[in-house]
Write a structure and sequence with these properties.
The protein is α+β, with helices and mostly antiparallel strands. The protein has helices spanning about 20-35, 45-55, 55-70, 95-105, and strands spanning about 40-45, 75-80, 90-95.
Length: about 120
């Protein structure tokens, strides 16, 4: 009997004043900290989050990239759902072992400073 993952769903609070990309990051980090997200758990694709929340895909991409930098997730390729079938792929993200180690730390690891 195969165990299926419960899909991770993001929720936005438009009255919080917190930027949307930051809300996405915070929700993934909270999911890891509470055990809702575990090693190998696949997050929704950029496209799926953008459609579900009616936000720009670039906003989702920004959040996922920052999570990758912080070692909270790793990119994986999942087949895009398009018709007709094509060779295009859309980015999905999974929770790696490094994030589990990171999530047990009492204080988050700061993101590296961007150099321009």
């Amino acid at each position: 009997m195969a165990i299926t993952q419960t899909p991770f769903r993001f929720r936005l609070d438009s009255s919080s004043g917190v930027p949307v990309y930051r809300q996405l990051i915070d929700q993934v980090q909270a999911g890891i900290a509470t055990g809702v997200l575990t090693l190998g758990h696949q997050l929704p694709t950029v496209r799926q989050v953008a459609v579900d929340l009616a936000i720009n895909p670039n906003t989702v991409m920004r959040a996922y990239r920052e999570l990758e930098i912080r070692a909270c997730s790793t990119p994986s390729k999942a087949p895009a759902r398009s018709s007709p079938p094509s060779n295009r792929r859309s980015m999905a993200t999974t929770v790696p072992a490094a994030s589990i180690k990171w999530s047990t730390n009492s204080s988050p690891v700061p993101a590296p400073a961007a150099s321009h």
